[in-house]
Amino acid sequence: MEKIVHRMVDVNGINMHIAELGHGPTVLLIHGFPELWYSWRHQILYLAAHGYHAVAPDLRGYGDTTGPPLDDVTKFTTFQVVGDLVSLIDQVASLDEKVLVVGHDWGAIIAWCLCLYRPDKVKALVNMSVAYIPRNPKFKPVDGIRAIYGNDHYISRFQEPGVIEDEFAELGIERALKKFLAYRNPTPPVLPKNLSLEDSPDNPILLPSWLSEGDIAYYTSKYEKTGFTGGLNYYRAMNLNWELSAPWTGAQVKVPAKFIVGEIDLTYNTMGIQDYIHKGGFKKEVPLLEDVIIMEGVGHFLHEEKPDEINQHIDRFFKQFCDDELN
Question: What is its EC number (predicted)?
Fold first, then answer.
């Protein structure tokens, strides 16, 4: 870990913290919620050792990245975040180099958008947990989630600024992070109001073998400084993304792609998603989708739970696009 280089990069009007290591074809690693660059620590070391230049930013609103006003949800659409990454690519990659991209959770959503908006910047993509879902012109995403799952679904509960932040603060940042990062359930989290009243601090949260108290301490140290608002704003901008992305209705993602998801990941067990993935819908929307991997018995944070397998999947897929460039 001490080999990883940390620096700040001026992108799109903000100061973005990145962690990077290695030389060779650039691999951009895009994290989700409530993660940070740190979630890619296993992949950074592996990729650098196998001839790649691994770059993992803290996305806007997260970690040591600074600049966007946290009280303005309109600064957290996919357009701003993709704009950050395009600027970052221009600075960390070789001239005119298309980069390799890996995404997870919200990072997967952003990666799909990067490939949709700027396919000229991406050579190939490995995405995890969240499949590409095309824009439905008939209803807004948050409205649809509320209609199907109700007001206690975690995305519904994340919508009102300040409310869930106060509840997380009362619960305790460390405990809130443990609940999210240790979550391993095929059903989506339900967050009843007054969350702390439903939780007893006397009940310890058992961490999985792949997540240490030291890992939690790192995340906690960053979220104690930033709070959760930056990450939550991605959820709060979902309906705004729907409005702004109308020009891409019906557009396909035309970048070579591989998709990996855990069998007990809540995203894989969302209503209708398995039929969409396995019965042709996904391939129709991403025509260059080359492979879909379902990891048996694996949960949401698969790149941390099974880093060796994920690293090999990434390397094998990317090699076909840059074998001549690898050291």
Answer: 3.3.2.10
Q: Does a structural domain hold residue 107?
A: yes
Number of Cβ within 10 Å of residue 209's Cβ equals: 6
Q: Which domain holds residue 170?
A: 5-322
Residue 181, phi then psi, degrees to nearest 5: -75, -25
Catalytic hit among 104, 235, 265, 268:
235
Q: Does residue 327 lie within any of the structural domains?
A: no
To the query of whether residue 300 is one of the catalytic residues in this protein, the response is: yes
Q: Which residue has the tokens 């059903």?
A: 187
Active-site residue, from 64, 105, 265, 315: 105
- Predicted model pTM: 0.96
CB 24 within 8 A of CB 55: no
Is 235 one of the annotated active-site residues of the chain? yes
Specify the residue for token string 């690898």: 326
Domain of 162, CATH number, reads 3.40.50.1820
Residue 20 falls inside a structural domain: yes
Q: Which of 300, 303, 313, 315 is catalytic?
A: 300
Residue pLDDT, tens place only, 93-145: 988 899 999 999 999 999 999 999 999 999 999 999 999 999 999 999 999 99
For the stretch 12-30, pLDDT in tens is 999 999 999 999 999 999 9
Residue 325 has pLDDT above 80, yes or no: no
How many structural domains is the chain composed of? 1
Q: Is residue 76 part of a domain?
A: yes
* H or E element in which residue 91 lies: helix 78-92
Active site (annotated) includes residue 105: yes
What is the pLDDT at residue 196? 56
